[in-house]
Amino acid sequence: MTIYYSLTFMLLAAEMVTFCVLVFPLPHNVRKKIFGFLSESPIIAKIAYGLKISFIFVAILFADALQRMFRVTAEAELAKQNGTPHAGGAQAENSFAARKFYSQRNTYLTGFTLFLSLVLTRTFSLILDLIHTQEEYAKLKGTSPGGSKGSKPSVDSSKEVAELKAKVAELSKKERDFETLKKQAAQQAAEFDRLATKYNEATGANSSKRD
């Protein structure tokens, strides 16, 4: 194995170890510190930048290995169609089989390295989002992310609760005032009907006496 494919294999092994560490079940506080360090450290940012450049070279190696694998496969298919064995006998066949094996190995090696890099990036971002979501949920509930209740709810939450209670009380008061106005309007309408009836009776009696 050449030096650049050996480095690619080491990079793949490092990615596998990193993935196991990311998905390993850790306490929330420990995971928060680890991911906070990884996302905020300038040293880690420089290392990540260097890895991005190395993945560009791995992508070039992947394209080259894929091209070699297709060429060796095409040669094998052509030899089968023509029915001509490889010149040189068993030694040539062994050489051809070795070329085919190496081309496939290099393709799988570089391909899995690139694929696992995408998986690691997505997993890291998802875990960061999960940590932030847990922190926000803990603030809203007034509990720590580990599950234990905090000493006091946050000041902002207390203010929001107080404002909501004040609004509810104000709405209840307005509703009671509205019901009172409805009752008063109904009473006044009934009184007006009673007075109008008496007035009509009185005016009707006076007109009949005049007649």
Automatic annotation (TrEMBL):
Coiled-coil segments on the chain, per record? 154-191
Gene Ontology terms: cellular component: endoplasmic reticulum membrane
- According to the entry, every stretch annotated as the Bap31/Bap29 cytoplasmic coiled-coil domain falls at 159-208
What Pfam families is this protein classified in?
A: Bap31, Bap31_Bap29_C
Q: Where in the cell is it found?
A: Endoplasmic reticulum membrane
Q: What family is this protein classified in? A: Belongs to the BCAP29/BCAP31 family.
Q: Name one GO biological process term.
A: protein localization to endoplasmic reticulum exit site
InterPro entries linked to this entry = BAP29/BAP31, BAP29/BAP31_N, Bap31/Bap29_C
Q: Per UniProt, what is the membrane topology?
A: Multi-pass membrane protein
Q: Does the keyword Protein transport apply?
A: yes
Q: What domain of life does the native source organism fall in? A: Eukaryota
Write down the species: Mycena albidolilacea
* Descriptive protein name: Endoplasmic reticulum transmembrane protein
Q: What keywords are annotated for this sequence in UniProt?
A: Coiled coil, Endoplasmic reticulum, ER-Golgi transport, Membrane, Protein transport, Receptor, Transmembrane, Transmembrane helix, Transport
Q: Where are the transmembrane segments?
A: 6-26, 47-66, 108-131
What role does it play? May play a role in anterograde transport of membrane proteins from the endoplasmic reticulum to the Golgi.
Question: The BAP29/BAP31 transmembrane domain covers which part of the protein?
Answer: 1-139
